Amino acid sequence: MSVRTTNQILLNNDYDLHEDIEKNRVNKEPEPKKKKSWKHRVKIILIIIFSLMLLGSIGLFLFFKTGLFQEYKELWVQTAMTTMKHQYLATWFMSDKEINDIMKSLEVVNNEDSELNVIELPKEEEIKDSKPKENQINVDKITGSNYVGFVMTISDPSKVKFVDSRKSNMGTKLSEICKKHKAIAGINAGGFTDPNGGGMGHQLCEPTIIDKKLLFGNKNQKMSLIALTERGELVLGKYTYQEAMNIGIQSGLQFGPYIIVNGHNQIQKSNAGGLHPRMAIGQKKDGTMIFVCIDGRQPGYSIGATQLELQNIFEKYGAYNAANLDGGSSATMYYDGKVINKTSTPIGERYLPNAIIVTK
Fold first, then answer.
1. In sequence order, which residues have a C-beta less than 8 Å from that of residue 329 and are 6 or more positions away?
2. Residue 195 carries which DSSP code?
3. More exposed terminus of the chain, fewer Cβ within 10 Å: N or C?
């Protein structure tokens, strides 16, 4: 072919320099993808599972067996060991000695009794001249970093009473207790044993005095009482039954720890008591009674509060004396015809052996 002919072909675009390359691309069949065998897939899954288990084991070791996360470990142990059914969350990973050391380091020791006759209770004529009875009770909804709760203040402490709510073989729900006594408000009070998890709520496990009668306990032994005198003064202290009668105690029960005594804070450690639903009672120096109910064990709504957080709440409300009552799934607050908090169990209110009510 002459040079002229070749140039003519190129000028007329009769020849594509990339033609053969494109043909090869079109005609070339794609290489089939190699299918991974089921053995290979199983191998990958096993490697992933093993890696996760290894990382989990390392994480558990660092958490439970070193001091890298000491504060969180203490909170974990306190929370687990102060429940009835979930202590395994600590005992599975730690020895009895390790658990006992943590529990002892966070133990609240109450060595101070509340002073008697220092609460300035309102006189009868002052109460009559004050606001209408329906306005004597105030309820505030409160929130913290881990909790939602309610604070109830009662300006007339003479309206606050302990009541025995046991029947022959079971306790009574708080709403029923309040309706029976025509009470405008109420909270749960003392603890009880729960054989086989039946939740019948009638078997007392701590010294209890109601209407001057010792319902459970030894008359000759000292009791760490949370009590009310006939004049409406909250008393925190260790007394025998006769000593309690001598100072005018009407009703009371053993529980704790004490949160504030004579204006002195009793809780020093941030993790004391762990995170739980809580119930507590306090009193200002002017006689105003304070109930604090904290919801818990409900992720997304409220986990619970420590005893230090409980103390902070009472301190904010000006409590002169305050003490922790039975919490957990028993923590229930009633006001104006209904339970106002969210109890931590799906079944709602528990059956209770006793309660603290506010009469109209």
1. 277, 297, 343, 344, 345, 350
2. G
3. N
User: How many angstroms separate the Cα of 279 from the Cα of each of 28, 53, 161, 237, 319?
Assistant: 79, 40, 16, 19, 15
Counting the structural domains of the chain, the total is 2
Six-digit token string for 341: 């908090």
- Quick: pLDDT tens for 295-353: 999 999 999 999 999 999 999 999 999 999 999 999 999 999 999 999 998 889 999 99
| DSSP structure class, residue 172 | B
Looking at the structure, do residues 144 and 191 belong to the same domain, yes or no?
yes
* 186 inside domain: yes
The neighbouring-strand residues paired with 171 are: none
> Would you call 200 helix, strand, or coil by DSSP?
coil
| Domain, as residue range, for 300 | 124-359
Backbone angles phi, psi at 355, to 5 degrees: -155, 165
